[in-house]
Structure formats: C-alpha cells, structure tokens
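Quick one:
INPUT:
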C-alpha cells in the first residue's frame, strides 16, 4: 500500500513545477509522491520525469475534465498558469477557475496557487502614471493572477497563495542578460532607479512550494511571499562584473523607455518594473528571503546562482 501523499503538479516540465517535482523526488523519505501533469507524456521532458520516478499523466490546464482526472486521489495540487505562452489574463483566469473547480471536485486537501499581486490595488486604472493595457489592466501578467485568487477562496479550496519573484533565470532565457552598449561595455537595463528588486532562482520556487506542502494545513488560507535576495540594479551589475570578470554596468532607464523597447510584453514589463520601483516597500515586504529559507534551506542567493549559471548567460 502506498501511504505517501500525492502532489499533482501543473507545469511539471517547466521552471516552477519542475523545481517542485525534483524537490519531491529528491526526498524519498519525505512522505510525498509526485504526479507530473503534462500535455504530452511522450515528450522528452515528460519521459525524463518518469525515468526519475514521477507518475506522469496527461492534462491541459484549459481542460477541466483532464484536470479532474489528474487531481483525483491527490492530497495536494500545485497550480500555475503560463502567461508568456499566450499573453492573456482572461485565459489565466479561466484556467485558474478550471484548476480550482477540479481541485474542489477531487477533494484536494491543499492547493498551492502560484500567484502575483493585482497591481490595480496600488495603481487604479484611472492613475495616469502608467498606461492601462488591454483595456483593464496595469500589469496584465500580474493582475490576472491576483484577480484569480478570489476564485480559490470563494470556492472554499484549501489554498496557500504563493507570491513569486522575478526569476534570475530571465538573465538566461528572457533576453534580460548583459548586453553591449554603444561603447562596447556590457550593461543590464532596468527601470528600477536605485530600488531593490526581489529575485529568485526559478528552481527555488518549486522547492519553497514543497516546503509549504510539508508544513501543511497551517499555511492554508495564507499568502506566502518568497525571494532569494533583494538587489538594486547596481548591486546586480557588480555581481555580474565579479562573476564574468569584466565590467558590467547598470543602465538605468525610465519606465516609459523600457515600455518602448518593442519586444512582445515590453509594456507589461515596463509597468511591472515601475510598480516594483514606486511601491518598493509594499512589494518587497511580503517577499522576505528568511521566509523562503525557512521553507527551503537550500535557497540560493544571487551570487551563488550566478556562479552556478554564468556560463549559461548569453553574452553578445
Ligand atoms: N519569468 C519570471 O520572472 C516570472 C516570475 C514570477 C512568475 N512568473 C510566472 O510564471 C508562469 C510560468 O511558469 P513557469 O516559468 O514555470 O513556466 P514554464 O517554465 O514556461 O513551463 C511551462 C510548462 O507548463 C506546461 N504547459 C504549458 N501550457 C500548458 C497547458 N495549457 N496545460 C498544461 N501544461 C501546460 C508546459 O509543459 P508541457 O508542454 O509538458 O505540457 C511547460 O513545460 C507565468 O505565468 C509567469 O507570469 C514568471
């Protein structure tokens, strides 16, 4: 008989969910088993998770029936949406609805919902400091997630609301790494003035989620914010200089300049950084690295993450 508690993990082949899958598999005596959700169990990433010992099941977070099957018999569920695949807060809301209803129907005892703030509590739509996007959002990839929180609450799903932070992995995968300026010097570009940005290794998000499942019912109904470290643009540039052994400077730009960069999502991210800059204390306060470290003693700081990942950062 398998007495281990099953955690069903959305996004299991991705960054956040993958970190959780590995955290569970790396702790075989921890009392938990993992069920990895994927749209395609035959993919290389899904087969790798199966090889490592995960139960792999087919599910699409937009398909409620598939979620009901995937959540059946599970003790816990990790729920996350994938904004950058489609750029639609409405779709995130619909998917959060499907996941919460499926968790309720399956009688899941503990959901961890990977969320972010609805920034409109700080910057109402009428506030002209930043443009309103898509008709009713200030930071679409935050606002939809924050708005979805109430769906879990209203359905009475036993949920911990996990407030995540900027992935340092964006310096590898999201085009945010150091780039050469006109004079040939490397620079990181952020519209954060001298304010500090809470950041985290994406892998640590899943490890913290595992800590939440282990802690159990005491965190149900609570919002838990996590980060690895809070650093200013200059402090991150100094760490890059140290790790790469060449000068990297912090190129501070105004949010409106960042919004005008023209890549998909530039306006959304420009508004996001402006919120993080202008509401810095309120944004940082719930993301205490000490909270994350208590959940995940292996939590990395920026220097440690950079040392391990510097060779993966594309430099022009
Ligand atoms: N980048 C940041 O700094 C940052 C910070 C905080 C929060 N976030 C948020 O993190 C979220 C993304 O999480 P992530 O980075 O872990 O994602 P990710 O690494 O892009 O992983 C996505 C995985 O989810 C699966 N997936 C995609 N669409 C799916 C669907 N419809 N149904 C089921 N599975 C699906 C895919 O797996 P299969 O192909 O195997 O199905 C994929 O491997 C975004 O909403 C973003 O706003 C990002």
């Amino acid at each position: 008989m398998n007495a281990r508690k099953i955690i069903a993990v959305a996004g299991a082949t991705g960054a956040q969910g993958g970190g959780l899958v590995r955290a569970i598999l790396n702790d075989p005596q921890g009392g938990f088993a993992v069920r990895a959700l994927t749209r395609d169990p035959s993919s290389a990433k899904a087969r790798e998770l199966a090889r490592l010992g995960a139960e792999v099941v087919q599910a699409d977070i937009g398909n409620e029936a598939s979620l009901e099957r995937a959540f059946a018999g599970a003790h816990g569920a990790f729920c996350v949406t994938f904004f950058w695949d489609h750029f639609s807060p409405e779709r995130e809301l619909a998917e959060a609805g499907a996941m919460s209803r499926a968790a309720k129907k399956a009688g899941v005892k503990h959901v961890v919902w990977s969320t972010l703030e609805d920034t409109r509590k700080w910057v109402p739509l009428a506030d002209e400091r930043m443009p309103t996007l898509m008709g009713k959002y200030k930071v679409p990839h935050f606002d939809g997630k924050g708005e979805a929180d109430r769906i879990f609450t209203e359905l009475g799903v036993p949920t911990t609301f996990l407030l995540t932070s900027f992935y340092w992995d964006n310096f590898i995968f999201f085009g945010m790494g150091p780039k050469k300026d006109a004079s040939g010097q490397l620079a990181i570009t952020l519209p954060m003035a001298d304010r500090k940005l809470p950041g985290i290794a994406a892998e640590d998000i899943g490890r913290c989620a595992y800590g939440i499942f282990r802690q159990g019912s005491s965190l149900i109904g609570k919002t838990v914010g996590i980060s690895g470290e809070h650093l200013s643009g200059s402090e991150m540039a100094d760490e890059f200089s140290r790790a790469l052994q060449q000068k990297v400077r912090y190129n501070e730009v105004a949010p409106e300049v960042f919004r005008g960069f023209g890549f998909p999502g530039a306006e959304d991210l420009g508004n996001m950084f402006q919120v993080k800059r202008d509401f810095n204390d309120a944004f940082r306060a719930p993301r205490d690295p000490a909270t994350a470290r208590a959940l995940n003693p292996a939590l990395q700081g920026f220097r440690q993450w950079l040392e391990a990942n510097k060779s993966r950062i594309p430099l022009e």
